[in-house]
Design brief:
The complex is a heterodimer of chains A (170) and B (585).
Chain A lengths: L2 H13 L4 H16 L5 H12 L4 H13 L1 H16 L5 H8 L13 H30 L1 H5 L2 H8 L1 H7 L4
Helix pairs in contact in A: 1-4, 2-3, 2-4, 2-7, 5-7
Chain B lengths: L2 H38 L3 E9 L4 E11 L2 E16 L1 H4 L4 E13 L18 H12 L24 H23 L2 H19 L4 H38 L1 H18 L7 H29 L30 E12 L5 E11 L2 H4 L3 E9 L2 E10 L6 E20 L3 E19 L2 E11 L2 E5 L6 H12 L4 E9 L4 E7 H72 L13
Parallel strand pairs in B: 4-5
Antiparallel strand pairs in B: 1-2, 2-3, 3-4, 5-6, 6-7, 7-8, 8-9, 9-10, 10-11, 10-12, 11-13, 13-14
Helix pairs in contact in B: 3-8, 4-6, 4-7, 4-11, 5-6, 5-11, 6-11, 7-11, 8-11, 10-11
Classes of the chains: A mainly alpha (170), B alpha+beta (585).
Chain lengths: 170, 585
């Protein structure tokens, strides 16, 4: 993905799509992406989903970074879940079929942390969403104005280069 | 939906389609030409290249690759290469071709334009240059003046002798090699390993839980067996390295023969041994052909996988990968069958056709060797070529065989204009050749039989009249000859031995005309070379014998110690020795 596009979405996200629901959805998607190994088609599709839907991108990106930092710890939970699923005799025909299908190996489904992360992420999606939504209310109430008035954001908004690139969208 | 995100990506897809439709073929053609030029170190041309994406296929016409060693000739050219790729493997980023076709393959065709690339210089083959030098340096001038004390006029500088230089160099490398072998074969680590296992066994002996004890015993036994296997492997490697070091003495002997020939040439006297004469006569021609074959081998080697095992490595950085049975595993590139047609020779070319099967970049995944079979016939001419390349194991092995009979020999020139030449015309030839490689090792034989030909010696350079007439008469009644070559050594440094019955005829002529005098001078020269080499050879032999005995003793002691200890430990570890708990009923 184009890193400049991510930066643009990041700054746009500071002002747009900032309802508590959008912040909660962004955090949930970021949490799920953060659990995945990034060099898989699954993670890339989730990133495309994040960019294509009206979720709050800055919160999603920050959550991806935070969860990625915690991966060594979270893998201890997702790895055994994934291993149990991938070695389950009941699911073996399904995995074997997927393994022999084109493109599917690119999703990394046979890596324990991918199915494990998906299951863990799905199980925790509801609590993470509600917690994220509450955080959204808190953020809008306490921090949004401060962030918008911060020197960094103001400086960036005043920059002619960013202004030209974002065409005043920030 | 965030259309500002989706719409640009749709536009990108349209642009991508336009790129493949309009710009992909020219770019691929350019990339292919540059890639070939880099490999062949000469210009390459492609007349046209067409790809199709809906039914993935490629068609290349009019490809010509220039010969880096010959400005106005092509290394090869073909009229058309076409294939269709299988769709499913492409989704796995793999190119699998069931049937490909290569038409009009020809070698050595002339070019109208220069094939030389700017700033690229073709390095001449060391083998060809040394054979040419030997042939040019073969001296006949002073044969008539040969006298017993002729060698007295020539002083031998030991430092200038190739054999002395080699013996000195070998002395140094032998010391280093021995130190390496000795370091590699460290029996102490095995002794220490066994001691540690023995300690574990002693500890396990005291274990009260029989299940735990049996488990520990099994673990120790497994490790003892692994350690013994490692020791055996290291020992075999040390023995093989020692034997290889011993083989190097042959090189000093060969260098001594070359020193002798060089000294004879310096004295402007002909060498009487048939090997030297054969090298003078047929060496340059055979070396040139061998260099060409080696060049092709070098090009092929560039595209061979260096470590076929590496391509299967797929370790995840996070998590663990669970693998399932794969119905079909494709190599990255595979051409199952390539139909081949072409022509051999420029005047009155011989048409041939054949197949190459299992052409792949991942032979271990494919699991089968690459095989080629080519046949051709025209009138009395018969061509039969077969080759195989087996890279499915750890070592790459190749084997090839060529038989070409009824080959017309219009003009063949042997020897060197500086010394002596034979022109062979108007006969037919039969060539039988085999070549095999195993890793870096190379071994091959080739024999060309000429029949019904006329042999015209060109002995103008031989000033001594009796010798000249003896040489001319020795070729007078000849109508057939055999020229053979044996290749050995390694792919990067091949050794070539040439033999021909023409050399026997020439040697007889030399010996008959002035053999006695030349032989005396030769004996004196030999004595001089031997005298210069003697102290170095003695030192080298002494060193080798001493080190071999030392390492042999070390190996013997280590084997007795390690094998004995391991055997005893294994005996102690038999299940019968595990104490079972006693139950009182």
């Amino acid at each position: 993905m184009n890193p400049i596009a991510i930066i643009r979405q990041f700054f746009q996200g500071l002002t747009a799509e900032t309802t508590p629901g959008q912040i909660g959805a962004g955090i949930t998607l970021g949490f799920l992406i953060g659990l995945m190994p990034k060099a898989t088609l699954t993670a890339q599709l989730l990133i495309v989903l994040m960019m294509a839907t009206r979720v709050n991108i800055p919160m999603a990106i920050l959550t991806v970074l935070a969860v990625s930092l915690a991966n060594p710890l979270l893998d201890k939970v997702s790895d055994p879940i994934g291993y149990a699923l991938l070695t389950s005799s009941a699911l073996r025909p399904l995995w074997t079929k997927l393994y022999n299908m084109p493109i599917m190996p690119w999703t990394g489904f046979n890596n324990t942390v991918v199915p494990g992360g998906l299951v863990l992420g799905t199980l925790l999606a509801a609590p993470v969403y509600f917690a994220g939504r509450r955080f959204g209310v808190f953020y809008n109430d306490k921090f949004r104005a401060r962030v918008m008035n911060s020197k960094v954001v103001k400086g960036l908004k005043a920059s002619w280069l960013l202004d030209w690139y974002f065409k005043g969208e920030v | 939906m965030r259309w500002s995100y989706v719409a640009p990506r749709l536009a990108l897809l349209v642009l991508l389609w336009a790129f493949f439709f309009f710009a992909f073929d020219p770019l691929l053609k350019w990339g292919l030409i540059k890639g070939i030029e880099k490999g062949a170190k000469a210009k390459a041309e492609i007349a046209s290249l067409e790809t199709s994406f809906l039914h993935p296929s490629l068609r290349i016409t009019g490809l010509a690759v220039a010969d880096s060693g010959s400005e106005y000739s092509n290394l090869l050219e073909f009229s058309e290469l076409s294939f269709a790729a299988e769709g499913a493997p492409l989704l796995e980023k793999k190119l699998v071709v069931d049937a490909a076709s290569l038409k009009g393959l020809r070698f050595g065709t002339p070019r109208k334009t220069s094939g030389r690339l700017a700033f690229v210089k073709e390095e001449s083959s060391e083998l060809v240059e040394s054979m040419k030098a030997e042939s040019t340096g073969f001296a006949l001038d002073r044969a008539s003046e040969a006298k017993a004390d002729l060698s007295a006029d020539y002083k031998v500088d030991p430092a200038g002798l190739e054999s002395v230089k080699l013996a000195r160099q070998m002395e140094e490398t032998y010391q280093k090699d021995y130190a390496d072998i000795s370091a590699r074969f460290d029996a102490k680590k095995y002794q220490d390993g066994l001691d540690a296992l023995k300690a574990r066994y002693e500890k396990a002996k005291g274990e009260k839980n029989p299940l735990k004890q049996a488990k520990e015993y099994a673990g120790i036994a497994k490790e003892v067996k692994a350690l013994t296997a490692d020791f055996k492997k290291d020992k075999e490697e040390a023995e093989a390295a020692l034997a290889a070091a011993g083989d190097a003495f042959k090189a000093v002997e060969d260098a001594r023969a070359r020193d002798m020939a060089a000294l004879m040439a310096k004295m402007k006297l002909p060498s009487l041994d048939t090997q030297s004469i054969a090298r003078m006569l047929a060496g340059p021609v055979i070396a040139e052909k061998t260099a060409l074959a080696m060049k092709w081998m070098g090009i092929a080697k560039k595209y061979m996988p260096a470590n076929t095992k590496g391509v299967l490595k797929n370790e995840a950085r996070r998590g663990r990968e669970v693998h399932f049975p794969k119905e079909k595993t494709y190599p990255t590139l595979l051409v199952r069958r390539l139909e081949l047609t072409g022509e051999l020779g420029l005047e009155d070319p011989l048409g041939y056709s054949g197949t190459v099967e299992g052409l792949t970049t991942q032979p271990q995944v494919y699991g089968r060797p690459t095989v080629a079979a080519i046949k051709g016939a025209k009138g009395a001419r018969r061509l039969d070529f077969s080759a195989s390349l087996d890279a499915t194991g750890d070592i790459i092995k190749t084997a090839s065989r060529l038989s070409y009979t009824g080959m017309p020999v219009k003009e063949l020139r042997l020897g060197s204009p500086a010394s002596f030449m034979v022109d062979i015309t108007g006969g037919t030839g039969a060539l039988e050749a085999t070549l095999a490689t195993e890793g870096e090792k190379i071994a091959g034989k080739a024999a060309a039989r000429l029949a019904g030909a006329s042999f015209k010696p060109r002995a103008e350079n031989i000033k001594a009249a009796p010798l000249r007439s003896a040489v001319e008469s020795s070729f007078a009644g000849l109508s057939s000859a055999v020229i053979g070559a044996d290749i050995s050594g390694t792919v990067s440094s091949p050794r070539l031995a040439v033999n021909t019955d023409l050399a026997n005829a020439l040697s007889k002529a030399f010996t008959g005309a002035m053999g006695a005098e030349v032989k005396k001078a030769q004996e004196a020269a030999k004595a001089k070379v031997d005298e210069a080499l003697k102290p170095h050879r003695a030192r080298l032999e002494g060193l080798a014998a001493e080190k071999q005995a030392e390492l042999g003793e070390k190996l013997k002691d280590a084997e007795a110690g390690v094998a004995g200890k391991a055997e005893k430990l294994l005996k102690d570890l038999v299940p019968g020795k595990a104490k079972l708990p006693k139950f009182k009923l």
